[in-house]
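Q: Got a minute? One more chain.
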Amino acid sequence: MLYSAIKDAHQSVRPEQVVTIRTLVPYQQRRLCWHGVCASTHRRKPDFDHVPPVASTTVSLVEGIVTLSGMILLSSTAAVTVWTVLYARVFRRSAEAPLSDDLLPRTAVLMGLKGTDPYLRDGLRRLMTQNYPDYEVRIVVDSRDDPAWPLVEEAIRDTNAGHVSIIEYRESPEHGIVNCTNSKVVQALRGLDDSFEAVAMADGDVVANENWLRELISPLARHPKIGVTTGNRWFIPPRMSAGNLVRHLWNVATTSIMYHLRMPWGGCYGIRMSAIRDGGLAEKWAKVAALDMHTTGEMKSLGLKVHFVPELMMINREESRLPAATNWIRRQLTWARLYNPGWWFVVVHTSVAAVAMAVAIIATTIGAFSEFTEPTLWAASGLSSYLLGMTALVALLEVCIRQRLRVSGQTIEHLQLRTLLPVLLAVPMTQFVQLVATLQATFVKRVAWRGSILEVNGPNDIRVIDDLPTEQTTNRTARAA
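A: Always. Here it is, folded:
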């Protein structure tokens, strides 16, 4: 009876549903299935002569994704190589002859401080002893109780600097804008008289050489179409830790982008006073959190250019742990989201690159432990070219920048080849940290800055929702480093 029932069920199946059956295996309490036809009885064990269409499509899709990941990494390597080589060539150009003192304009150097940086004491002394004929320094400190205040007073005494003023921050944030370095610079800017023809800005982590101000302002005096001059930061960490490497590699990529897009860095920034007046920039800067993000568009509207000065790559030797480095990257990206119209391109590019990297790593690992197929070979080729290419480009920039700084009179150690292996290993880590920081900058409204928690509601609405006393801020910063 049971056999007859199975036979009848088998005969009722359409020919296209039937698969080759070689044996009849009498397992109790199993299900009998032929491409969707089941009976709660004994089961015939099927032997498939071909892969089902759904499985075949899935395999093809996976192979296509793996191949595409390798192609994306290969094309990214080629594009970044061209981009970086063009950037590196800037550091091989001959420097312009220095201007005589009588051609240099009267300049005000502005700095805003909250808390202290590891090298602030050295930076203040360098700033107060510049090789420049006519300049004044205005330093706005968060409060008299701030740890930076006695350091500024000490530097003034040690250098006998009569051209330096220390000012307590007093202005209230406008339109919800947070009390940050930008607000302090605007306060100092509003206190300048008409005798100043140029303005320079420096961050608290800048340790300038004695010709920093001369090199920053000279292009403004030499070329009337240049409205803004800028340098950039360059990290040379003392140890190859995860946080130091991620921050360094992210900054390497960013400096190249900023050069090609003519984006200045507010930590080493010079501008004509006439451009500030003509563009009404003091009022505009009072309403934003990152004044340098507005510069390119403002200069274009005034018919002026942004000029990069290769000698002004400011060496930063501070250390950073990975959480602090991630937060620092996230903060930079938050300002880019607020003021960069191409932000969604950054999000898409970062996401695609990170996914391609992850797929290539997984596919290459599987291929290494089993057998390389054409798709996994594409992935392995893309991954290896990307890792080796990025490492080589970092080395190229390191050599070019360090050589340029040595020519300008600075003492910079040579690049050690043994540092390149940690760089290679840190490339994928940096890619994934970039993805995390980008998503946080896109969807999370709060960001930490020097002990303050900022709520970012829009380009002109950034508010402090938690602010630690400055002493605790400094201690927290030291622990994070």
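A: The first helix runs from residue 2 to 11.
Q: Perfect, thanks.
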